[in-house]
């Protein structure tokens, strides 16, 4: 049985799991459709119902995105193009490649491809658009948090603004690399000696000297960012600062839903 979001989350039974469907907004860059930020679509107590609704949502998303305007296939990897074309040909007898170089323009998934195979295809090309997250009632979501504003960090897209969170801390920084680079540019002044900037000045000095994207100006004095940091560098640099520019906090699914409802995208 599908139950209302807030009612589902207010009822606490530590041994019970909740099943969250998280959906990605559809972005478009004048050439191709892509997954933009995400938000919680619904919460279930019944896994079977959640999986049934997930399949329906995914199937509708796969049907919604034109094959020739799918981000992963637009100037895509040749191996993926061949793999997709072979899959569709094996199932329907129809080739969707134009000379083997790209997907034929204005071509869509053949109507003869059945729903199960459409879902397989959607997984191959990244157009499923929805995912299922299983949480116990006591399990918290990990949320990327901005220190300066003391609120959840958000990614921005023409389709809206979105929180950045997951079931674990894994890959959160990598997922938000672009957002964190902008955050660092906007909020990090880096003025001061190593001793003023870090509780471990020797380690910070070593990190700056070994990182090509950073430079220390002894005249200022200040750490200067001269190029983009990768995800691991962002995480390491942040961890060495007395005042980090981001942190990872825990929020309940109810708190995430309420924040998305009250603050983001209506």
What would the keywords be for this entry?
266 residues, alpha+beta, 2 domains, 4-stranded antiparallel beta sheet, 3-stranded antiparallel beta sheet, globular, disordered N terminus
Description:
By secondary structure, the chain is of the alpha+beta class. The protein folds into 2 domains: 131 residues, no CATH class; 122 residues, no CATH class. Helices cover 38% and strands 25% of the residues. It is built from 10 helices and 13 strands. Strands 6, 7, 10 and 13 form a 4-stranded antiparallel sheet that branches. A hairpin with a 2-residue loop joins β8 and β9. α2 crosses α4 and α3 runs antiparallel to α4. It is globular and about 70 Å long.
The global form is globular
Radius of gyration (CA) equals: 22 Å
Distance between the termini: 27 Å
Helix content: 25-40%
Name the average pLDDT.
88
Unreliable spans: 1-6, 8-15
* Number of helical segments with 4 or more residues: 10
Largest sheet: 4 strands, antiparallel
β-sheet strand percentage: 25-35%
Structural class of the helix and strand makeup?
A: alpha+beta
Number of extended strands:
13
SSE arrangement, N to C: HEEHHEEHEEEEEEHHHHEEHEH
Total of domains? 2
Please write out the topology.
Blueprint: H1 5-10, E1 17-28, E2 33-44, H2 47-64, H3 78-92, E3 97-98, E4 102-103, H4 115-125, E5 130-136, E6 141-146, E7 151-152, E8 154-157, E9 160-163, E10 165-166, H5 172-175, H6 177-187, H7 194-197, H8 201-210, E11 214-217, E12 222-225, H9 231-240, E13 246-251, H10 253-263
Antiparallel strand pairs: 1-2, 1-5, 3-4, 6-7, 6-10, 6-13, 8-9, 11-12
Helix pairs in contact: 2-4, 3-4
């Amino acid at each position: 049985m599908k139950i209302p979001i807030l009612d589902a989350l207010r009822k606490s039974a530590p041994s019970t799991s909740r099943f969250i469907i998280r959906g990605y907004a559809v972005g478009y860059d004048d050439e191709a459709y892509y997954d933009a930020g995400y938000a919680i679509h619904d919460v279930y107590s019944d896994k079977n119902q959640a999986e049934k609704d997930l399949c329906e949502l995914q199937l509708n998303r796969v049907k919604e995105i034109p094959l020739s305007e799918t981000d992963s296939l637009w100037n895509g990897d040749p191996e993926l193009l061949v793999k997709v074309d072979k899959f569709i040909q094996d199932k329907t007898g129809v080739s969707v490649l134009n000379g083997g170089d790209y997907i034929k323009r204005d071509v869509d998934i053949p109507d003869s491809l059945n729903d199960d195979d459409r879902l397989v295809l959607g997984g191959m090309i990244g157009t499923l658009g929805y995912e299922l997250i299983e949480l116990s009632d006591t399990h918290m979501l990990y949320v990327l948090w901005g220190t300066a504003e003391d609120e959840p960090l958000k990614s921005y897209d023409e389709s809206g603004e979105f929180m950045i969170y997951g079931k674990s801390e894994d890959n959160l920084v990598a997922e938000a690399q672009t957002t964190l680079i902008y955050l660092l540019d906007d909020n990090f002044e880096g003025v001061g000696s190593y001793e003023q900037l870090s509780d471990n000045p020797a380690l910070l000095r070593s990190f700056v000297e070994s990182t090509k994207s950073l430079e220390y100006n002894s005249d200022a004095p200040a750490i200067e960012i001269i190029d983009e940091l990768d995800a691991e560098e962002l995480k390491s640099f942040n961890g060495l600062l007395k005042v980090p520019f981001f942190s990872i906090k825990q929020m309940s699914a109810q708190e995430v839903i309420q924040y998305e409802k009250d603050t983001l995208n209506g």
